[in-house]
Design brief:
Elements lengths: L7 H4 L6 E2 L1 H27 L3 H28 L1 E2 L5 E2 L1 H6 L1 H16 L5 H24 L1 E2 L2 E5 L1 H24 L5 E2 L2 E2 H23 L1 E5 L10 H52 L3 E5 L5 E4 L1 H7 L15 H4 L5 H11 L1 E9 L5 E11 L8 E8 L1 H15 L9 H18 L2 E9 L2 H8 L1 H15 L9 E3 L4 E9 L3 H19 L1 E5 L2 E5 L1 E8 L6 H18 L5 E2 L2 H22 L3 E10 L4 E12 L3 E3 L1 H11 L2 H19 L9 E5 L2 H4 L4 H12 L6 E5 L8 H14 L2 E7 L6 H4 L6 E4 L1 H5 L7 H14 L3 E5 L4 H10 L3 E3 L7 E2 H7 L11 H6 L1
Parallel strand pairs: 19-20, 22-24, 24-25, 25-26, 26-27, 27-28, 28-29
Antiparallel strand pairs: 1-2, 3-4, 5-8, 6-7, 9-10, 9-13, 11-12, 12-13, 14-16, 14-19, 15-16, 17-18, 21-22, 21-29, 21-30, 22-23
Length: about 850
């Protein structure tokens, strides 16, 4: 065996070659690109799903790395220049490729396996380094030259050792840098590992070449190195290696893109299936012939049929489930023209339950020939349908009595009008209303009022032929329809009159409410109509006029509509509009009726309101006061009277003859119950400077029907200002003695009804005497109003009354006439005053 190592004396005779720099750089690039390509192939080993694909990628990666190691070595050897010709044996050179491929396979296998232990990483790195060294020295042995090859021991050992840490580093770095991202498609972790592997290959090769010495054979002759031929060969090897590496990279990138795309598609498909399965709506996939391919669990739940029984069946043939036969032609036409159909169906569950649903069918993934798949969604609309029904019920029914409301009644009237146009029969519309329902609510409470309304509705129900023939229109107003009356107007009117009378008789009477009996009076007005000549609103308006007529008569008998009612209503509306302009137009007048003592001396007056209409002349208070009460204009009128009265009292303070007189003003319950009533009285007194002690507010007994404390508080507050109070028309309403003694009153006024009958009715005198005695007991003054004859005055004097008011002394007069009358200190009694007033 020839010697391997060179001795020190031989060094002087030995020859070492030199390297072409650009070929050295080219060899290093070949190593880097080849190794990176191999590692990229190694990545596919782990990500491949099938075993045979993983094995193919492992073989390709290992071979790629072996070829890279071998190409780097061969390029490096061609970059080595000697002064004598050198050749490489073919078979041994090819044999050197085997350890390189084995090292590459080991390295790729180590890189592809996740969770590799540290020991195995070190072993794999060492085997990679040893494989590189084996390939290198096998390739060196294939070199043929006219010289013997010797190695320096230390550089040789260094070349063997230096490749090991870089090999280990390449394995470690590949595993440690997996989390690093890609930049422009290049995985930074693989690039780092490729750098370490390339360093292992290149450092081992060129450090080993530094250990090589050549001892020329005897008689050798120096020749010029064949640089051009070697460079071409090295370039060819490098280019081929580059092309092979690039081809491998492109293959890896394409496979990676395809696998990513397949994975994304698989994930999308899985997510789509998960989404479809998680939907509450039923989803069905159909082929181009509308045959069911698949359905989700929700569809099975909605229909009660498993998917195995549905697959292959036509959607349009599932009439037993969705009742599609009535929509068949419409569905086919809509799908053919628009590619979609949506509509309401009734689902019949396999267990027999039925419910409304919405079915939507849409074409998806249509091909150029117009074919494609279809997706059908089935949504349970029971909750929506129930909500709509509930909303409609609320919109057409009264919440308290559950009766139909005005809207429902209007639709029913319209339907009956259409039927009446054909049959010619008459229809009765009856409106009923509880009299004084507000008073019942105020006295007994709203809860009792609601019970009364329910009880009244219960009594009305048997009179209705159809459920929607009866309705509650407002707070205490009900409507009843009765159709099919006679064609003859006379006979129909008789039938309507008898029916309305019977209904009212059943409603009037006592009601048991919460264990107590309460009497209830009901008024009613009815209208007879036929056909659709009049609108529904006009019919209700006319029936309402008949009801108002019944309430005004207070006879508890039904009133039929008459044409004159419309004219009276229009007159009332005109008067209402004109009354609004009365204050602004200065049409209101202040009239005064004197109040006298037993000697005929004027002690004051009652201020009365008159309306001097520009067209109608002097309008009676009975014609507009009730109207003002109903419309709320009584507030404005009362404020006007109060302010004018205070102004008059303030003006009289400068007249010693009238400065002690009092003025009385009537106050309605509606005025008195206003929250700002006390403030209004106080402001009127303050602004005018009128003495509060000479202002008397006359109240009605109806105020005592309500809560006592608000009335007492209001009167007490005004009494602190000095205002005086009187109860007007005493004895005609409701008065509680316990209530009276708690009120800060000053006087009682005997109603004209008792005064008028003093000389004719033997029961009138005891009533008047009782009122006078009551006033004296309560230490209140008493005034008799409506005194018209001397006999009435004398009788009142006998009973103890000392203050009077009436036509015996003077009728209500305009202010200037009253002032002329009051210039006399004492009014004549016994009729002597009347001629004076008439003049």
């Amino acid at each position: 065996m020839p010697p391997i190592f060179i001795t020190y004396p031989q060094v002087a005779q030995a020859i070492q070659g030199v390297h072409t720099p650009w070929l050295v750089v080219l060899s290093c690039l070949v190593a880097l690109v080849s190794v990176y390509s191999a590692m990229a192939v190694g990545e596919r080993v782990h990500s491949a799903r099938w075993q045979h694909r993983r094995r193919a990628w492992w073989l390709a990666g290992g071979t790629m790395m072996g070829l890279g190691i071998w190409s780097m070595h061969f390029t490096g050897m061609l970059a080595y220049r000697l002064p004598f010709p050198a050749h490489h044996g073919l078979w041994l050179t090819l044999a050197s490729l085997l350890p390189a491929v084995v090292a590459g396979l080991i390295a790729v296998a180590a890189m592809a396996r996740r969770g590799l232990s540290t020991t195995r990483k070190i072993i794999a790195g060492c085997l990679l380094g040893l494989g590189i060294a084996t390939m290198h020295y096998t390739g060196m042995a294939a070199m043929e030259a006219p010289a013997s090859m010797r190695f320096a021991p230390i550089p040789l050992l260094l070349s063997l050792v230096i490749s090991l840490p870089f090999g280990i580093a390449s394995i470690y770095s590949f595993h440690a840098s997996r989390h690093l991202p890609r930049v422009q498609g290049i995985r930074l972790g693989s690039l780092l590992a490729a750098v370490f592997a390339a360093l292992a290959i290149c450092s081992m090769h060129y450090s080993a070449m530094m250990a090589v010495y050549f001892l020329p054979d005897p008689g050798w002759q120096a020749t010029a190195p064949m640089a051009h031929h070697g460079s071409l060969l090295a370039t060819a090897v490098a280019v081929l290696s580059f092309l092979f590496a690039l081809t491998t990279l492109v293959t890896v990138l394409v496979d990676r893109r395809l696998q990513d795309s397949a994975m994304r598609m698989q994930v999308s498909r899985r997510q789509l299936v998960d989404v479809i399965e998680s939907m509450h709506d039923g989803v069905v996939l159909l082929d181009q012939r509308a045959r069911m391919i698949m359905c989700n669990h929700a569809f099975e739940t909605l229909t009660g049929v498993p998917h195995t029984d549905l697959q292959g069946h036509s959607m349009l043939k599932l009439n037993t489930l969705l009742r599609l036969d009535q929509h068949r032609s419409q569905v086919l036409r809509s799908l053919r023209e628009n590619g979609a159909w949506i509509g309401d169906v009734e689902v019949r569950h396999r267990q027999g339950r039925r419910f409304p649903a919405r079915l939507s069918i849409n074409r998806v993934r249509a091909d150029e020939d117009g074919s494609g798949h279809f997706v059908a969604t089935l949504s349970d609309t029971s909750a929506h349908h129930d909500a709509q029904q509930h909303i409609r019920y609320q919109a057409y029914h009264d919440g308290l009595t559950t009766l139909p409301n005005r809207s429902s009644l209007q639709e029913r009237i319209h339907a009956l009008q259409l039927a009446s146009d054909i049959s010619g029969r008459h229809i009765m519309l009856l409106l009923v209303d509880i009299d004084n329902f507000k008073g019942i609510n105020d006295a007994l409470g709203q809860a009792t009022g609601d019970r009364l309304l329910k009880a009244l509705a219960a009594r009305l129900r048997p009179w209705a032929r159809q459920a929607n023939d009866l309705a509650r229109l407002s707070s205490n107003e009900f409507a009843l329809l009765y159709d099919g009356l006679s064609v003859s107007p006379e006979n129909a009117m008789g039938q309507a009159r008898e029916k309305a009378r019977s209904v009212l008789e059943s409603l009037n009477g006592d009601y048991s409410l919460a264990g107590e009996r309460h009497s209830c009076r009901v008024s009613g007005g009815y209208l007879l109509f036929r056909g659709g000549d009049l609108g529904v609103s006009e019919l209700l308006k006319r029936a309402g006029l008949a009801l108002l007529e019944s309430k005004s008569e207070a006879a508890q008998r039904p009133c039929a509509f008459e044409a004159s009612m419309v004219e009276r209503l229009n007159a009332r509306l005109r008067l209402e509009r004109q009354l609004k302009d009365a204050v602004v137009g200065e049409q209101l007048r202040q009239y005064l009726q004197p109040q006298v003592d037993h000697q005929g001396t004027i002690t004051g007056a009652e201020v009365l309101l008159r309306w001097e209409h520009p067209e109608l002349g002097l309008v009676s208070p009975s014609a507009f006061i009730s109207l003002a009460e109903d419309t709320g204009q009584i507030i404005e009128l009362g404020n006007w009277v109060l302010r004018k009265t205070c102004e008059l009292l303030a003006d009289w303070q400068h007249d010693p003859h009238r400065s002690a007189w009092t003025l009385s003003v009537n106050v309605s319950a509606r005025e008195f119950q206003r929250a700002d009533f006390v403030t209004g009285v106080e402001r009127a007194l303050t602004d005018t400077g009128a003495p509060a002690s000479q202002l008397t507010l006359e109240l009605t007994e109806s105020l005592m029907l309500g809560e006592a404390y608000p009335v007492i508080d209001t009167l007490t507050h005004l009494r602190t200002l000095g205002v005086r109070f009187a109860i007007d028309d005493f004895g005609t309403g409701y008065s509680s003695l316990a209530y009276l003694k708690r009120l800060p009153l000053d006087s009682l006024k005997i109603d004209v009804a008792f005064v008028r009958d003093l000389t004719d009715d033997p029961t009138a005198a005891p009533i008047a005497q009782t009122i006078i005695a009551l006033a004296q007991t309560l230490q209140l003054g008493v005034i008799a109003e409506g005194v018209e004859t001397v006999e009435q005055q004398k009788r009142l004097l006998e009973l103890g009354c000392r203050s009077f008011q009436g036509y015996l002394y003077s009728k209500p007069l305009p202010l200037h006439q009253f002032l002329a009358l009051s210039s006399r200190r004492r009014l004549p009694v016994g009729g002597s005053a009347m001629p004076l007033l008439q003049g």
